[in-house]
Design a protein that fits this description.
With 119 residues, the protein is an all-beta fold. The protein contains no helices and eleven strands. Strands 2, 4, 5, 6, 9, 10 and 11 form a seven-stranded mixed β-sheet that branches. Strands 1-3-8-7 form a four-stranded antiparallel β-sheet, with no helix packed on it. 29% of the residues are buried.
Length: 119
């Protein structure tokens, strides 16, 4: 089992930066790929970024490429999402999640942290 808690959300002006953190509790966190998702009011949850268990392979949604950077610190059981050049359309609740090979899905999710970008 993996328990995830996001933090670092808040209100920021367009063009600004914010770093989200994902604290993981669980002895096997380092063996899970990690992803970030977001959900805006009235919209479905969408994929933002992912990073493999080794921290070497990353993938980003087209909407955030060049602006967001996903990373992880396995020694500290922490995941991060650095968000630069923020836009109003980035406003959403952001969730971190852990991928498990057994089910080939994101089985563990955090509670979410609100990110609001003003124009």
């Amino acid at each position: 089992q993996v328990q995830l808690v996001e933090s670092g959300g808040g209100l920021v002006q367009a063009g600004g930066s914010l770093r989200l953190s994902c604290a993981a509790a669980g002895r096997t966190f380092s063996r899970h790929a990690m992803g970030w998702f977001r959900q805006a009011p009235g919209k479905e949850r969408e994929f933002v970024a992912r990073i493999d268990w080794s921290g070497g392979l990353t993938y980003y949604a087209d909407s955030v490429k060049g602006r967001f950077t996903i990373s992880r610190d396995t020694a500290k059981n922490m995941g991060y999402l650095q968000m630069n050049s923020l836009k109003p359309e980035d406003t959403a609740v952001y969730y971190c999640a852990a991928f498990t090979l057994g089910t080939r899905s994101y089985d563990y999710w955090g509670q979410g942290t609100q990110v609001t970008v003003s124009s």
